[in-house]
Each structure stands twice: as structure tokens, then as C-alpha cells.
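WARN  no MSA supplied for this record, continuing single-sequence
INFO  ligand: nicotinamide-adenine-dinucleotide
INFO  echoing inputs
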Amino acid sequence: MTTIHIAASREYDVVIEPGLLTRLGTMAAELGLGRRAAVISDDAVFALYGAAAEKALTDAGFQVDHFLFPHGEQQKNLSTYGQVLNFLCDRRFTRSDFLVALGGGVVGDLAGFAAATYQRGVPYIQVPTTLLSMVDSSVGGKTAVDLEHGKNQAGCFYQPSLVLCDPSLLNTLPEREYRAGCAEIIKYAMLYSEDFLRELEETPVLEQFERVISVCVGMKRDVVRGDEFDKGQRALLNLGHTVGHAVESCSGFTLLHGEGVAIGMAIITRAAVEKGLCTPETLPRLLAALERYGLPTETDYPLTDILAAAEADKKRTDDVTKFIVPERVGHCRVEPVPADEVAGWLKAGGLR
Ligand SMILES: NC(=O)c1ccc[n+]([C@@H]2O[C@H](COP(=O)([O-])OP(=O)(O)OC[C@H]3O[C@@H](n4cnc5c(N)ncnc54)[C@H](O)[C@@H]3O)[C@@H](O)[C@H]2O)c1
Ligand SMILES: O=C(O)C(=O)C[C@@H](O)[C@H](O)[C@H](O)COP(=O)(O)O
Ligand SMILES: [Zn+2]
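INFO  complex generated
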């Protein structure tokens, strides 16, 4: 079993091992969590893994309830969030009870936000079931729901008590969701390690799940330790996300988050090369890696639509938008771009 300790306002472990779902209950008991657990999940994940998760919890002596909602990003909204809170009230959950987020990033972000705010905060465990949520979203405590105006517009930082990562759950993951997870993995390589990108080029992620998850979580651990509340270097984890979130929104969420991030990374890297901030060989290397994992690198959405959607970016003030800009593979920087130059940057990135 690999254990990665996260040092943040709440300290916790990310534990990674195939088969670990069966130990959910004993691990929750070891943490001294309360007697009742609410499993929050989506319909598709719960049909596959709900019974196993609940058995693990009841075998360890917990009373278990569950709240399910339809799968998909469209459900990561205030309405579902309110339903979770009302469910917890109806079942008389108390501050000594805890939530279990069983699912991908949509479930994790939404259940985390519910845990942060129900009675001003109850503990929660992340049980990520997608590649994307294992390598990125279950760690670091960013919780959120989307508003009509954009992604993750309401949320807070609230760390889980445990992240239980069982890579054997990925056996049922649809191919497209696997690829979307690979986009965030390529993001980590672009940010921090050319060696890691070479590994991804040479050996498919699906042949080395545990190692890839451990590497990405280790990288995120270092970022969160230095800047939990996103005041500085954590912004780098938003590589590809200004345009990525915008294209996701423009598509009405028919594009997956990872697909948006892939497009966003390609566009910002193209722009950075055009502006002379990035070595030219970085772009074909990134594009080849994205294409190797079947990810998109372009979008037809017009520049004006992307610009409007990007106004919801949390790295934006009235005066500047901070773009995360690759300088070369393994090195990126935060580049404040004045508001009147943002359109020019996106044109340089290939948007029309
Ligand atoms: N909080 C963070 O730091 C952070 C980081 C990255 C992304 N995110 C957010 O995460 C979300 C995307 O997460 P995601 O890609 O996991 O999407 P998701 O949660 O929508 O899951 C993708 C789909 O796969 C299904 N699924 C999940 N696990 C499965 C399994 N093991 N087998 C079969 N099907 C399974 C789900 O039902 C869903 O339909 C976005 O909302 C994004 O904004 C948050
Ligand atoms: O953990 C972080 O910090 C990230 O930015 C990780 C991103 O992959 C993730 O998509 C995050 O939810 C984006 O956050 P936001 O602040 O741009 O909403
Ligand atoms: Zn992301």
C-alpha cells in the first residue's frame, strides 16, 4: 500500500492499493469517526460499488444511509447540493457523523462542499472512482458546485479526513473517462517533470495506474503543503483551465473536464510559443502526448464565446487574468495578462 500524507489545515493520508474499498469501514473506524455514515454517490457509480462500500462500513459497525443523484457535470449544482443538505437534515445527521464521497470529481466536489457546510462542517472521506479524481480532484480540499455563470463558482477549501484510492475500481471506467483523467496527468508532467512526461510517452497510463496516481498525488501534496488556500503557486494547477473551463461551459458540459483541460493546455502553449515565452519544441511534444491519449487539442467555439465564459475564471481581476504559461516541459509560470491583451493571447493560441 502506498501512503501519501497531506499536510494542510486538516492532515490526512491518501492511501492507494487495489482492493482497498473492502477496508473502507476499518479505516474509518481507525480515524475515530462517528457512528453514522452518509454515502454520497451518483447513480452509475453506486450501481457498481455502492453495495461493497456500504458492506465495508456496516461490517465495521457503522450505520449507513445513502444519497444518490444522476451522474454528470450538469448535476454539480446548487439544487443537488441543497438536496444533500436536506437529506442530512431529514436523517438527523449530526456533527459527530461523517460523509463518504463515492465517485468521480463531480461527487467529490459536491459532497465535499456539503460536508464543509452542513452544520458548519462534518468530516468526510473521499473514495475516488475515476482516474481524474484519483490523480487530482480527491486531494487538496477544493470543493465546489457550478453556477449558471460558470464552473466551481460556489465552494470552499475543506480537507477530507482520508482519501481511499482503490485503482481496481478503474476496471469499469469508460474509455473516454480514462482519457479525460490522462489530461490532468499530462498537466502534472507539463508542470513539474519532463521525466514523468517521458514515462507517459513510453508506457500507457493504464499499465501503471498505481505509480501514476502516486506521482501525481505526490506532486499535489507538495503544492498544497506550500499554498493550501490558492494564494500563490497553487495557481499552477490551473494550467489549461482558463480556456478549459470556458470550453466546458460553452459545450453545455458535453465536453468532459479533462477534454477541456487538454484543449486549454494546447491553446495556452501555442500562445506562449507565439509570444516567445516558451521553447518551440514544447508545443509538438505536448500535442503528441495529448493525441497519444486520444485527447482533443482544438475547439471551434468562437473567441467571443470563450472570452465571455472565461470571465468566470477565479484567476481574473478587473485588470488582469493570470494565465498559467509553459516555458518548457516541466516548467510553467504564472503570467498576469492585462485585460485588454487577453483576446490577443487567445488569438495567438489559435482561437478565431
Ligand atoms: N477539486 C479539485 O481539485 C478538482 C480537480 C479536478 C477536477 N475537478 C472536478 O472534477 C469533475 C470531473 O470529475 P470526473 O472526471 O471524475 O467526472 P465524474 O465525476 O462526472 O465521473 C465521470 C463519469 O464516470 C462515471 N464513473 C465514475 N467512476 C466510475 C467507475 N469506476 N466505473 C464506471 N463509471 C464510473 C460517473 O458516473 C460519471 O458518469 C469536474 O467537475 C471538475 O471540475 C475538481
Ligand atoms: O487543486 C487545484 O488547485 C486545481 O486547480 C486542480 C484543478 O485540476 C481543478 O480542476 C480545480 O477544481 C480547478 O479549480 P478552480 O479554482 O479553477 O475552480
Ligand atoms: Zn482540473
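The chain has a mean pLDDT of 98.
INFO  checksum written, moving to next record
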